[in-house]
Design a protein that fits this description.
Blueprint lengths: L1 E3 L7 E3 L2 E2 L12 H11 L21 E2 L15 E4 L12 H13 L4 E6 L2 H7 L9 E6 L7 H7 L5 E6 L16 E5 L11 H14 L3 E5 L27 H5 L1
Parallel strand pairs: 2-5, 5-6, 6-7, 7-8, 8-9, 9-10
Antiparallel strand pairs: 1-2, 3-4
Length: 254
């Protein structure tokens, strides 16, 4: 249902859906797909449905979990929650009505802060006018290389309190990335077997552009088999030690 998170920029995860499909180069070594195979082998019921072997595989078929929707309402203490660490809420197989229900839960639990991240930015932009956007919902898109910076353009059309970018795994420089209206940027290299090695200058360029525009920048990791970033920072200015205090995108847009 929900778990404490090992992800540096959040506190807990909530998966009202599980499963996904590879859709762009950043998905090649998907951590969630690899984890889902292990969870399927362990017999966890949420990971028994297989997906298309061409785009996903064992344990990673898109599945809705109705029982998870009520979980945040049982938590009284505030939490920062990453929604769908093991899926994409805007996946084409997730019904519009189910997405609206997830947002209704977030509206009804203002004590929590929700972080929603998607690669399906076109569907996000299409549905956004019909969704509620309370102050406790942060909306982000993943961008791995320059051909996908259009996802940030779709994100700018969303009336979220915080619009953020996850540039992970970063697979190339982003010279065309427009940071207008963005309140927070996360960047990192790819981890695990077969990981693709990033160049330090890709991160430095983004960090410096964020700095010049007053946007908090969080460098998560270099990647590789031992992906910890600390001890191998770009330099002291690389780190934003307060990853939960981004700039309000609504304020920047106004």
């Amino acid at each position: 249902m929900a778990d404490r998170s090992g992800i540096q920029w959040t506190q807990a995860t909530l998966n009202p859906t599980t499963g996904c499909d590879r859709m762009s180069p950043g998905c090649l070594n998907c951590y969630a797909l690899t984890l889902a195979k292990r969870l399927k082998a362990m017999g966890l019921p949420k990971y028994q449905r297989d997906g298309d072997p061409r785009t996903s595989g064992p344990g990673f078929g898109l599945t809705l979990h109705e029982d998870v929707l009520s979980v945040p309402q049982r938590w009284s203490a505030p939490r920062t929650i990453f929604v769908n660490s093991m899926s994409d809420l805007f996946h084409p197989e997730v019904p519009d009505e189910f997405i609206r229900r997830v947002f209704e839960v977030m509206v009804s639990t203002p004590q929590h802060t929700y972080q929603v991240l998607t690669k399906r930015s076109k569907r996000l932009a299409k549905l956004a006018p019909d969704l509620q956007w309370p102050h406790n919902v942060w909306m982000g898109v993943s961008i791995e290389s320059n051909p996908y910076v259009f996802r940030a353009d779709h994100l700018r059309a969303v009336n979220a309190t915080v619009r953020f970018l996850s540039l992970e795994p970063l697979l190339g420089p982003l010279p065309s990335l427009d940071l207008e209206g963005i309140g927070w940027v996360i960047a990192g290299g790819e981890s695990g077997p077969g990981s693709r090695t990033p160049k330090a200058d890709w991160f430095r360029d983004i960090r410096d552009r964020c700095g010049s525009q007053g946007i908090p920048f969080f460098f998560k990791q270099w990647g590789g088999r031992t992906p910890k970033a600390r001890g191998r920072t770009l330099d002291e200015r690389c780190w934003d030690e307060k990853p939960f205090t981004p700039v309000s995108s609504r304020a920047r847009a106004g």
